[in-house]
């Protein structure tokens, strides 16, 4: 997936000035945003942004197209919601349990899927995720068609009442920043450089002596864990874990968000999530045409701007400067 | 185990096996089309399920709007979908051949969403009954150990004929030889004066028509439903991973075989029937990562 990349940071460089500025602006925006926009819409953006950033770690920086990330997102939501609602544990433990769920599933999926490359990898992850969808449909824990409803938000660390919208928002923001920070550190670490080497030229990375499969598995598991973090957080925010989050459509949605924002760019998935949530909210009146619009975006992005919004802007800036 | 053995009833077992065989027939036809398209275009056609669904809807629409019955529909619907497929190849797929294979998957995924979304908006998700089983195949015959509805028997036989016919056309005819040559080395075949781009278009059209024909054959058995395509395509992907896309016979054998495994599971342990194919896929990946009929790359 070598041509999917937009940013090709040189190894060893620190946080670039542009990234620093964008990061600062983004942070300032996110801190004041709830005064301007509904917190609930913002929290949805943040959950999907984290989900897409996690997905981008494997597609954008390792070159693996996973079509099964909904399994991590959705099952983390189920386990998180179950731990909080049925076991009565506090939200932080529910979210941790969800993250662990994502990691365990990711380890299993990755262990199986990295045996095949490219297009087969995508098909294997899709099939495994579909299996987990059917499991969700069958086992009693998930509540079948109803899902797990009315999950209490509870007290974070026994102190912060998450039923307050602002408390919930800043908690979600903190979780997003932690997840984003982990991803940012990962892709700018020596480990991340090896991942990029695998993406660019896998046989060469092998010949240089890297145990490519171990790197892929670790990246995939990390990505799944963070997708789980996003899913469990979403379950706490919306107090709901449902089948929607484990469907193949959800796996497709995270691909779309990442592709739209810019594969292999640091901020692309965040921008993609904002655009997509905005679009979805705006389009809620047109009902099931959303699927058609989603499909059209896929076709347009693949045919005309494969670098996504952020990637294309970056390209423009580079050509000018 | 003893408990299971005590509960074995031959008619129920054979009934499920027949259902499995029919599902297997559809898996085989669809994975065959996927394999042929992948061979020449290097694209995994995510829209294959949507084309299958459109084929079924084509038959239903021909009956509802024009009063055209099953037999003409079995030809007309695949022809229309085949032409649609060729247009799709010319307008969309052609533009991405030089890119990474994954873009083909993403592009056809988008097309699948569009097709499914349009049909869902017009016809809802509840589905339409297609009651045009030809008179020849109404009723059934008692085989002694089970009751065989004639139409279902026809589906199994017809799909076997179609699969073997495709195998013959590709492996044993001159046109098939060109096709195989172009799969190996398109530039060289082009240099011999064969119009490879046209061959690619026709191949995609053929794959689309094959999917549509499976759809028409499924229409009298299943509810004609906008989501029938996405339901089946993911299972077919698993079948393709299990069989490997290297060989046509491999695709056909694993299609039928997995249908039977699914039918058997439905009888022995119904709760696992939706997941068994994926479990088989996981086991195959562990034991023989390249697939049962695949060559290790």
Report on the structure:
The complex is a heterodimer of chains A (321) and B (297). Chain A has 321 residues and is mostly helical. Chain A has a domain at 39-245. Chain A contains 13 helices and two strands. In chain A, α2 packs across α10, α3 (69-85) runs antiparallel to α4 and α3 (69-85) packs parallel to α5. The longest helix of chain A has 27 residues, at 212-238. Chain A is globular, with a radius of gyration of 19 Å. Chain B has 297 residues and is mainly α. Chain B has one domain (7-123, 131-287): ABC transporter involved in vitamin B12 uptake, BtuC, CATH 1.10.3470. Chain B is 72% helix and 2% strand. Chain B is built from twelve helices and two strands; from the N terminus they run αααααββααααααα. Chain B has helices at 2-7, 10-41, 48-66, 70-91, 101-123, 150-172, 174-184, 186-191, 196-218, 228-243, 248-268, 276-287; strands spanning 140-142, 147-149. Chain B has a two-stranded antiparallel sheet with strand order 1-2. In chain B, α2 packs antiparallel against α9, α3 crosses α9 and α4 runs antiparallel to α9. The model of chain B has no long low-confidence stretch (mean pLDDT 87).
């Amino acid at each position: 997936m070598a041509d999917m990349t937009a940013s090709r940071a040189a190894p060893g460089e620190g946080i670039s000035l542009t990234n620093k500025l964008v990061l600062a602006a983004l942070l300032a925006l996110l801190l004041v945003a709830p005064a301007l926009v509904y917190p609930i819409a913002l929290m949805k953006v943040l959950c999907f942004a984290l989900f897409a950033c996690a997905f981008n770690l494997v597609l954008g920086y390792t070159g693996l197209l996973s079509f099964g990330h909904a399994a991590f997102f959705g099952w983390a939501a189920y386990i998180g919601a179950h731990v909080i609602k049925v076991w009565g544990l506090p939200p932080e433990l529910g979210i941790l349990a969800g993250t662990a769920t994502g990691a365990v599933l990711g380890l299993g999926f990755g262990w199986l899927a990295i045996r095949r490359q490219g297009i087969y990898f995508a098909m294997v992850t899709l099939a495994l995720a579909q299996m987990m969808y059917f499991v969700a449909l069958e086992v009693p824990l998930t509540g079948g068609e109803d899902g797990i409803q009315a999950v209490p938000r509870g007290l974070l660390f026994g102190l912060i009442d998450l039923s307050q919208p602002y408390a919930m928002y800043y908690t979600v923001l903190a979780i997003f920043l932690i997840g984003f920070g982990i991803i940012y550190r990962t892709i700018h670490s020596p480990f991340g450089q090896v991942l990029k080497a695998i993406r660019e030229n896998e046989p060469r990375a092998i010949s240089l002596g890297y145990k490519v499969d171990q790197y892929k598995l670790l990246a995939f598991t990390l990505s799944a864990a963070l997708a789980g973090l996003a899913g469990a957080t979403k379950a706490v925010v919306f107090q709901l874990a449902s089948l929607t989050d484990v469907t193949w459509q959800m796996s497709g949605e995270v691909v779309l968000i990442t592709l739209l924002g810019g594969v292999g760019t640091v901020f692309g998935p965040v921008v993609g999530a904002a655009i997509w949530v905005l679009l979805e909210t705006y389009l809620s009146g047109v009902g099931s045409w959303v699927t058609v619009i989603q499909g059209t975006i896929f076709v347009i992005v693949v045919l005309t701007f494969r670098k996504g919004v952020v990637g294309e802007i970056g390209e423009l800036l580079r050509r000018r400067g | 185990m003893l408990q299971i053995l005590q509960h074995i009833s031959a008619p129920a077992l054979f009934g499920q096996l027949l259902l499995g065989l029919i599902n297997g027939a559809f898996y085989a036809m669809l994975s065959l089309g996927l394999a042929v398209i992948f061979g020449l275009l290097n694209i995994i056609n995510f829209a294959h399920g949507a084309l299958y669904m459109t084929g079924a809807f084509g038959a239903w629409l021909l009956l509802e709007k024009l009063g055209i019955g099953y037999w003409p529909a079995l030809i007309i619907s695949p022809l229309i979908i085949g032409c649609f497929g060729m247009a799709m190849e010319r307008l969309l797929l052609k533009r991405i051949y030089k890119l990474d294979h994954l873009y083909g998957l993403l592009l056809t995924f988008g097309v699948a969403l569009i097709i499914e979304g349009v049909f869902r908006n017009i016809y809802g998700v509840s589905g339409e009954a297609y009651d045009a089983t030809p008179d020849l195949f109404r009723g059934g015959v008692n085989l002694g150990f089970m009751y065989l509805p004639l139409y279902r028997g026809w589906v199994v036989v017809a799909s076997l004929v179609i699969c073997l016919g495709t195998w013959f056309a590709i492996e044993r005819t001159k046109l098939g030889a060109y096709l195989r040559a172009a799969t190996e080395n398109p530039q060289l075949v082009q240099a011999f004066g064969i119009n490879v781009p046209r061959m690619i278009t026709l191949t995609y059209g053929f794959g689309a028509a094959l999917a549509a024909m499976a759809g028409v054959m499924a229409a009298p058995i299943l509810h004609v439903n906008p989501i029938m395509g996405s339901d089946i395509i993911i299972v077919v992907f698993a079948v393709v991973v299990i069989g490997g896309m290297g060989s046509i016979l491999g695709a056909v054998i694993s299609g039928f075989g997995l249908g039977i495994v699914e039918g058997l599971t439905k009888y022995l342990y119904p709760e696992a029937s939706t997941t068994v194919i994926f479990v088989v896929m996981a086991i195959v990946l562990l034991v023989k990562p390249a697939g049962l009929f695949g060559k290790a790359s």
